[in-house]
Specification:
By secondary structure, the chain is of the alpha+beta class. It has two domains: 52 residues, no CATH class; 96 residues, no CATH class. The chain is built from six helices and six strands. The strands form two sheets. It has a three-stranded antiparallel sheet. Strands 4-5-6 form a three-stranded antiparallel sheet. A hairpin with a 2-residue loop joins strand 4 and strand 5. The mean pLDDT is 81.
């Protein structure tokens, strides 16, 4: 929970396009903020960023995967095989601008001048483009053997 370089995101559960996201350096600050929100009926998501993330083309990214839950008991989840990968526009710097470096949401990233100049076409890759890149970098099917499972 408490590593060397913590970064916590507090997100409104019913919001989209990066609206209302707050970034904190400590879990205690997240808890304090949540305590201030007591009585607020909104749902919130708390996410701890990976401290040593896989970086591709010097950028942080996330994988957007579609799933469908058709039953809770027994839990039945269907995963769509295809996904897409979203990149930050700025090269990753764990101590840099948290919104530019850590929030991959296109609605956040398109506000930065680098968005149009990004060598990663359109700031997104298909899962196949991502798999091809990883195979070229590592010489094996990292996506199929490690990430997809």
């Amino acid at each position: 929970m408490n590593g060397q370089e913590n970064l916590w995101l507090l997100k409104p559960g019913s919001s989209s396009r990066g609206r209302g996201i707050k970034v904190y350096k400590t879990y205690e600050k997240v808890v304090n903020r949540i305590n201030m929100l007591k009585g607020n009926t909104r749902l919130w998501v708390v996410q701890k960023c990976i401290e040593n993330p896989l970086i591709v083309e010097s950028r942080k990214f996330d994988i957007r995967q579609w799933v469908l839950v058709t039953d809770w008991n027994p839990l039945t989840i269907w995963c769509y095989r295809e996904s897409y990968i979203r990149f930050c526009v700025q090269e990753y710097d764990p101590k840099g601008d948290t919104r530019k470096n850590h929030l991959t949401n296109n609605s956040v990233q398109k506000k930065y001048a680098e968005f149009a100049d990004n060598e990663i076409d359109g700031n997104m890759w298909s899962s196949q483009e991502f798999a091809d890149h990883l195979e070229g970098e590592h010489g094996s099917d990292v996506y199929g053997e490690k990430i997809w499972p």
